[in-house]
Design goal:
Layout lengths: L9 E6 L6 H14 L4 E4 L2 E3 L3 E3 L5 E3 H9 L11 E5 L4 E6 L2 E7 H6 L1 H18 L2 E5 L17 H6 L4 E6 L5 H10 L3 H6 E9 L7 H11 L3 E6 L29 E5 L4 E2 L5 H4 L5 E5 L10 E4 L1 E2 L2 H11 L1 H10 L3 E5 L1 H5 L3 E4 L8 E4 L6 E18 L2 E15 L6 E6 L2 E7 L1 E2 L5 E4 L8 H10 L12 H19 L2 H7 L10
Parallel strand pairs: 1-9, 1-10, 2-9, 3-6, 10-11, 11-12, 13-15, 13-16, 16-18, 18-26, 19-21
Antiparallel strand pairs: 4-5, 6-7, 7-8, 14-17, 19-20, 21-22, 21-23, 23-24, 25-26
């Protein structure tokens, strides 16, 4: 009889707070281990984000874990993110379990179901451990939220289940890094502090030699080793996990806009804002996220992005004054692109008879496209191939709406969904050709589509990078791995998992 296969070792990357660099460090470790010949996979038991994507099986998961899977040179799988919460308001979220939406729940109801979700996550982790040689686990928010610890299964409880040494990540750029690390440890019970193997300080600016005394103080105070001080970088582009990175964008006076420029409206429930990362990679093109109502005349185009609550965001547009400003922009010759929720918002009305996004009812849209949307289950999640005026590309769709077009013309023709040949009209183009709406996310990952759209909005002569999509992202993962290898004790981190400093089985 063959001995039972040993499960893959895990390393847990937890944080002193949100947006301290957990996702980026996890991504870096995924690529580093993979480059060293170790079959690694990412895992996050529960993610809270409206940035999601679709697996080859047509199931939904957080984009951060899709990014990490790509860093491992793997196709994403829902076991890597078994529970996904997509906030729909201040106290409720759509709950996605193993890639399928189960409906909306309040925080109270969700916490009551914690035990079952923990078991689901444990099962997913176990399957990954049987299939791979190393698992890099990511935590959520702070691992020391004392008021939530009884309900938390993402951070220390999951690390304890996996017998995973924990690396605590702190962000020195936020300030108070000594209090971040020491305070986090002080909030933990003794057995929880024992789980912490050491810490990493992220986003350092300046001469690191001036911080050597700070590192020594922290190591002495905590009796934990520092596994690296990671310098700030702005030469590497990694998709952000959630919209905290674009919170409270500044108002831009029309005279201060550096043309050519494209504006993306920062809706309250914005989702999949990483759709527009390729715009930031074009030399000479400026991309602005806007939230406060302002004049749009200096922009070549306005983009209405995805939304996890398109009805609430539509009401915000009317209430804030943005609706009038958007219509004025179009009347002045401006181009508008709506994606997913943004596409729904451009229509005549959004109906929600079943109350999927709040109280049942209907709200008027901007009335700029001849479409009407009815929110209804089941949720559409699909990898797709589509054609735009003979230009072929790939994207993905994630939405609850069923949209009827009764004028204009279709935007794209979808020719494949989740591996099946189809012939489906998607989206809508206004009669004047200056308003486009589509359910297709990721369309700018294709250089040909991006270039075609720029020409349509009157921007010619810009150099669109000819590498795109996974090829472009893969190069960035390589840069990220090199950055962390230079500044972190990778050998020490691998040794925590039982690997020798040059790799090899634990």
């Amino acid at each position: 009889m063959n001995p039972k296969k040993q499960k893959a070792p895990c390393l847990a990357i937890l944080g002193t707070g949100s947006d301290v660099g957990k996702s980026v460090l996890t991504t870096a470790m995924c690529r580093i281990l993979t480059d060293r010949g170790i079959k690694a996979a990412p895992f996050k038991a529960q993610n809270m984000s409206n940035n999601s994507g679709v697996t080859p099986e047509g199931l939904e998961m957080g984009r951060a874990q899709i990014v990490q899977a790509e860093a491992c040179r793997l196709a994403p799988h829902v076991d890597m993110n078994p529970v996904l919460l997509k906030p729909t308001g201040e106290s409720g979220s759509q709950v996605v379990v193993l890639g399928e939406a189960l409906g909306n729940q309040s925080a109270k109801t969700y916490y009551a179901s914690r035990a079952g979700l923990f078991e689901t996550a444990v099962g997913a982790l176990g399957r990954l451990q049987e299939s791979y040689e190393a698992i890099i686990m990511e935590g959520a928010g702070s691992c020391a939220e004392v008021n939530l610890m009884a309900h938390d299964f993402v951070n220390l409880p999951m690390a304890a289940h996996a017998a995973a040494p924990v690396i605590l990540v702190a962000d020195i750029h936020k300030g108070g890094v000594f209090a971040q690390i020491v305070g986090t440890l002080e909030c933990l019970e003794p057995e929880q502090r024992e789980q912490i193997a050491g810490f990493i300080i992220n986003r350092f600016r300046g001469d690191q030699r001036l911080f050597e005394g700070g590192v020594q103080w922290l190591e002495t105070k905590t009796q934990k080793p520092c596994f690296g001080v990671i310098p700030w970088f702005d030469h590497i582009r990694i998709e952000a996990e959630d919209s905290v990175v674009i919170e409270r964008p500044a108002t831009v006076a029309a005279a201060a806009v550096q043309a050519p420029a494209v504006a993306v409206l920062r809706l309250p429930h914005i989702s999949n804002f990483t759709d527009f990362d390729p715009l930031a990679a074009i030399a000479g093109l400026n991309r602005y996220f806007l939230e406060t109502v302002q004049d749009l005349s200096a922009f070549s185009a306005l983009i209405l992005p995805g939304s996890k609550n398109s009805r609430a965001d539509m009401q915000w547009l009317h209430r804030s004054g943005w609706a009038d400003q958007i219509r004025a922009f179009h009347e002045g010759g401006g181009h508008i692109l709506g994606i997913c929720g943004g596409y729904q918002i451009l229509g005549q009305a959004i109906g929600d008879p079943e109350g999927l996004e709040g109280e049942p009812g209907e709200v008027p849209g901007l009335g700029m496209l001849p479409i009407k949307t009815r929110l209804a289950a089941p949720k559409t999640t699909a990898l797709a191939r589509f054609v735009w005026e003979e230009t072929a590309a790939a994207g993905y769709a994630i939405h609850m709406g069923r949209t009827q077009r009764y004028g204009g013309s279709p935007c794209f023709k979808i020719v494949e969904e989740n591996g099946r040949d189809v012939d489906i009209e998607d989206g809508c183009v206004s009669d004047d050709g200056r308003i486009l709406g589509t359910y297709m996310h990721g369309l700018f990952d294709a250089s040909a589509i991006l270039e075609k759209w720029l020409v349509r909005i009157g921007l010619t002569g810009l150099q669109v990078p000819q590498t795109h999509g996974l090829e472009t992202r893969g190069a960035q993962y390589g840069l990220l791995a090199s950055h962390f290898e230079t500044h972190a004790d990778i050998g020490g981190l691998m040794a925590l998992m039982g690997f020798g400093r040059t790799g090899g089985n634990p």
